[in-house]
Specification:
6 strands; binds zinc ion; elongated; 13% strand; 4-stranded antiparallel sheet
Length: 287
């Protein structure tokens, strides 16, 4: 009769336990050296032996068999931990060792939490690909009267072919101009917004320079933080943020309800996505 899965798991854990117990005989100083140095001098055969022993333990600990067994043990202890006592270290009690680290625990796969400040679960916009960019710009300009989007070119003779990255020029009449750098890894992948720089509406500056006005430099810094929170943010989503600046100089801050901050008298240049209202709320940097 072949052993049951539980017996197999017990065996795997017992083997692991025994190999850890064996490793306890490695002299303390050698143990430290063996952990620190992977490249071992040939003159220290015992050291390399110990090192191999530790590597084997690490490998066993990471193996599917042991991880499954550890997970099963954890579940089992959770559901009924009565009558489980830990007396395996009884024989060491008199030797006054420093406390041993806890028993190995199974690795817990933590769910990747999104840190995106663009987070929105309600809309499901299909990210834009490079081939769709021109149509998107046309459609965007049809739907917006104050905002304008176009492709920026360093020179008039730069040709019509889209480059990678592409720089877009976005403007809100009398409010601001922004240069948006979008790029893609290959044609099948969506465009990601790489950087956005804001300028005053009448400033004549190159996309990679910075505004002479503190308020637009603050806006640029804020855009940088937003992109940092979601390096793959798509163009459409970023455009909703940019459009929320239409009344940048007259919008009240959602926190203090003032247009200009009491500190420094700056407009509410930051935006916070409100999932409930599906709107970007204005905030002062200092609020
Ligand atoms: Zn405020």
């Amino acid at each position: 009769m072949s052993p049951s899965p539980v017996e197999n798991q017990l065996q795997a854990l017992t083997d692991l336990y025994n190999s850890i117990q064996n490793a306890r005989h490695i002299p303390r100083d050698l143990l430290k050296t063996a952990i620190v140095s992977n490249a071992l001098p040939l003159a220290a055969p015992s050291l390399s032996l110990y090192s191999q022993q530790l590597k084997d333990i690490a490998q066993t600990l990471r193996s599917d068999t042991v991880q499954t067994a550890l997970r099963a043990a954890l579940e089992s202890a959770k559901s009924d931990s009565q009558n489980i006592t830990n007396n395996v270290r009884r024989e060491n009690r008199k030797r006054r060792r420093p406390p041993s680290p806890e028993s190995p625990q199974p690795y817990i796969v933590t769910e990747r939490q999104s840190s995106s400040l663009f987070l929105s679960s309600k809309d499901d916009i299909t990210p834009l690909k490079n081939a769709e960019l021109i149509n998107y710009i046309r459609q965007f300009n049809k739907e917006h009267s104050l905002c304008k989007l176009g492709i920026w070119q360093a020179t008039r003779s730069a040709g019509k072919a889209l480059k990678n990255p592409t720089i877009l020029r976005f403007s809100i009449k009398d409010v601001l101009t922004a240069y948006i750098t979008v790029s893609y890894t290959d044609e099948d992948h969506p465009l990601a917004v790489e950087s956005v720089t804001a300028f005053g509406p009448r400033e004549r500056k190159l996309p990679h320079s910075q505004s002479d006005y503190a308020v637009f430099r603050t806006v640029s810094q804020f855009f940088g933080r937003m992109i940092h929170s979601d390096p793959l943010v798509g163009l459409q989503r970023f455009m909703t943020l940019l459009c929320s600046y239409e009344s940048m100089f007259t919008t009240r801050c959602d926190k203090c309800q003032r247009v200009l901050s009491s500190e420094g008298h700056v407009a509410a240049v930051e935006r916070v996505w409100n999932e409930n209202t599906s709107h970007w709320e204005a905030r002062h940097v200092s609020c």
